Amino acid sequence: MKRKLALLLAMTVMTTSLYACGKLDETDKDTNSNKTGQTQAEVETEPEEKVEEPSTPTYALTSVNADGYEYFTGGVQCIQITDDKHPKLAEAIDKQFSDLVSDFNSGVDEMNEDAKQMNEENRKYAEEDPDMEYTDMSYSHNCTVEVIRSDAKIFSFVLYDYLYTGGAHGMTDETGYTYDSTTGELLELSNFGDEQAIKDTALAYIKDIITQSEQSAKDSLFTAGEFTDDYDELLDSSFEGDNVPAYYLDNRGLVFVFQQYAIAPYAAGIITFTVPYEKLEGFNEKYIPEDEFYSVDLSALGFIDEIDANGDGELEKVYLVNNNDEYTICAGDKEVSEKVDDYAYVYGTYIHSKSGNFVLASISGDKLALYDISNGVKKVGELETTLSIKEIKDGEIVLAEANYDSDGVTWGTPETHKYSKSGLE
Length: 425
Known about the structure:
By secondary structure, the chain is α+β, with helices and mostly antiparallel strands. About 20% of the residues lie in helices and about 35% in strands. The protein has helices spanning about 25-30, 85-130, 195-210, 215-220, 230-240; strands spanning about 60-65, 70-80, 140-150, 155-165, 170-180, 245-250, 255-260, 270-275, 295, 305, 315-325, 325-330, 335-340, 345-355, 355-365, 365-370, 380-385, 390-395, 395-400, 400-405, 410, 415-420, 425. Strands 1-2-3-4-5 form a five-stranded mixed β-sheet, with helices on one face. A five-stranded antiparallel β-sheet has the order 9-14-15-16-17, with no helix packed on it. A four-stranded antiparallel β-sheet has the order 10-11-12-13, with no helix packed on it. Helix 2 links the parallel strand 2 and strand 3. It is globular and about 70 Å long.
């Protein structure tokens, strides 16, 4: 039997309002007596609602899948707010993902039928041409989420929408969503302050970051040609008039998302640039987070980020770049290069923790190397492993085997490794 997705995101939220009733003491009674000596009735005061201190939302991820379809696979990953201190946020998140599942369901039957018809047509072509190889194919649609920032001020996440309807590859669209943790309001760019000043600042900053980056990073972007404009012109059009790229807030700043083919070929993937809060003109400071633990992926293309890596209040350039048989990690005016096997590729993650600031290099899926960048760049640990990074915590890295299929990723048994300036255990 064919079954569409069924999503139950209803949450029972119980809130208790505490009231403090004002009551006159004996002195107040005497003061408020009338001239005849009769005591006035006690003065009733308006009940005062106890205001909860702002707190960090807690959440869980759930997945639901479309089952029973011959030529379609897919599913939706959803977020649920799991505490009872953020009822408005919980309601807004529930509605967003309920709507998302409803939209998903509305297209499942049609996609399955379209794929069936395409298979029938291709099967006929294969019967007429004995040299043509043919196998049935399925359409797929998967929506996954990643929570980027969760604190007392902001709850932001990214929705990755992958769609495959035949051809060489599918397409992924990345959309950011930023909610006020207390009010549950979905925030727009205008909520962050002076919208035009923010856009102008962001555009100028992104151009400057590209200019300062290694040539290998710049070479990944479009140049003016027969079929496309130069990336600089494409950036201008992305911020022109009412236009603005997708965006969200993280722990460092305002992140702008450029989709596949927006400013670079498909192979470059989705490109993001983070404009630090310190660089944004007209930005509302109430949305700037406290100095807490976070981790963030560095640009896989080698574009620089600006981060206060040594705690002196100034931003330094931080990036990782691949150069043939070696990779280089840069922090400020210091850098370290390491040799790797031919065709090995290295991905970097910046970690801001209580014990310091680090770059974790993941080398071709068989090694992790940890670098302390709190004062220069110093390699402090290395770990041989074929496991993937499942989660990075303050002082701990959780690794596990990642298995990918049509339903997304499933994780094997996790193992935890501690890290600090003393090394990687």
